[in-house]
Amino acid sequence: MEDKQSRELRLEQEEEEEHAKVDVLKYVFGFVEIAVVKCAIELGIADTIESHGSPMTLLELSSALSCDPSPLYRIMRVLVHLKIFKEKPATQLGPKVFAQTPLSKWLLKSGQNSMAALILLESSPVMLAPWHGLTARIQGISNPAFEAVHGEDVWSYAAANPDHSKLINKAMACDARVTVPAVIESCLEVFKGIETIADVGGGDGTTLRLLVEACPWIQGINFDLPHVVSVARECDRMKNVGGDMFDSVPKADAVIMRWVLHDWGDDECIRILKKCREAIPEDKGKVIIVEAVIDEKDEKEDIKLTNVRLMLDMTSNVFLSISLSFNVLTTYETEPMDGS
Ligand SMILES: C[S@@+](CC[C@H](N)C(=O)[O-])C[C@H]1O[C@@H](n2cnc3c(N)ncnc32)[C@H](O)[C@@H]1O
User: Fold this and answer.
1) d(Cα 203, Cα 230) in Å, to the nearest integer?
2) What are the O-methyltransferase C-terminal domain coordinates in residue numbering (predicted)?
């Protein structure tokens, strides 16, 4: 006869098998979530409800978006299931309505908290195609998968394709608008005493603009590839300089790099850091790195953030040279170089 312990173990295994039967279907249809969210952004569903000023019925929404109500309803049903929008029950006076949630507001096409550009970048055909080369990449058969598909690395491709470059810059800017104020608020001490700072790989200058606005004692240089800075915005106490960080970095009291090193392998990171070291004063220079860090030993980590860090690391693996990822602000005070 089965004892209590064996019975419990058997029931636990049966339960796990039941869950697995359903869980595996996530991988059959996983791509649909991204496609539906992308569609919601492209249609401007969140923007339409926002400018309407109150929740909308299906007919109001379909008329505002010039869509057939039936397919729109099916998209809305998924978006409600994903808790991106809320469906509020019908009242005596009218039918059910669709309302914004904190999550749908991240899908607005513009504004302080918009992540739309980053979602549109990552779900663009250009960025999705390389994922088909992940296996070959892991087996070491191919170059970074982006190069294998597009024939050149991400940055050369962006230089030759202004629309894609614009999408990258917009995507980076929307993330910067969210993370940079948090970095400044929690690490203001780091920026005290810095008179000039170069943002290396600074994109369209959003990070630096937020920094000089919050720290009026700082003058900034936004440094990036020439095709990027040629379309970057100018603002007070900040200028744009084009160049290649593997050749040299503009001289300043400090260098900041946000989301740059994770794009490169160890050898390239060392070359970039040496150029940063040459650009700052011997005795009091700073290199400030803002990155995602995977801490495999931290068992108390927020599981959702760990998920984001691991996924970000996979994008580095597919698109670029191999690297680990970081997510904290780290500063290195300068020390005399020993030539290594
Ligand atoms: C992931 S983006 C980060 C943008 C920006 N730091 C931010 O946080 O929004 C990486 C940036 O590095 C720039 N970059 C790539 N290669 C470069 C190079 N050789 N010299 C200077 N910038 C480079 C890219 O053009 C891009 O703007």
Assistant:
1) 10
2) 131-311
For ligand 1, atom 9: residue with the closest CA: 172
Give 280's contacts (C-beta < 8 A, 6+ positions apart).
251, 252, 253, 254, 255, 286, 287, 334
Residue pair 321/264 in contact by the 8 Å Cβ criterion: yes
203 lines ligand 1 (CB under 6 A): yes
Contact 167, 161 (CB under 8 A): no
Q: Atom of ligand 1 at shortest distance to CA of 227?
A: 25
Q: What ipTM was predicted for this assembly?
A: 0.99
User: Per residue in 139-182, pLDDT tens?
Assistant: 888 778 899 899 999 999 999 999 999 999 999 999 999 999 99
**Residues 107, 45: contact at Cβ < 8 Å?**
yes
Which two structure tokens, joined as six digits, stand for 258? Answer: 């946000």
Single-letter amino acid code for the residue at 165: S
Distance 249 CA to ligand 1 centre (A): 13
pLDDT tens sequence across 31-72: 999 999 999 999 999 999 999 999 999 999 999 999 999 999
Query: Using N-to-C axis directions, what is the helix angle for 4-43 and 69-81, rounded to 10°?
Result: 140
CB 96 within 8 A of CB 14: no
Is 132 catalytic? The answer is no
| CA–CA dist 174, 126 (Å, integer) | 19
Distance, in Å, from the CA atom of 52 to the CA atom of 296, rounded to the nearest integer, reads 46
